Amino acid sequence: MSxxxxxxxxxxxxxxxxxxxxxxxxxxxxxxxxxxGGSSLLAMRICIRIQQQTGVEIASEVLxxxxxxxxxxxxxxxxxxxx
Length: 83
Fold this sequence. Notes:
Order of helices and strands: HHHH
Distance between the termini: 12 Å
Shape: globular
Number of strands: 0
Helix content: 55-70%
Radius of gyration: 11 Å
């Protein structure tokens, strides 16, 4: 199911999803996923939520390999534009 994200950018929405999953805050795009205890299981949950709410399929490895949460969010935004 694809969802519009009214009143927000894809990037800020993704950062919010990551923040919710990490149960930490505030999280900024410049932060590293690992600085807040990010794990492969959390990365999988985040990617599943993104897919369910936007229709964007993205592997958890993309988040795990991103230097910052913002870099991951940019990749989600780029893929969303291709959907």
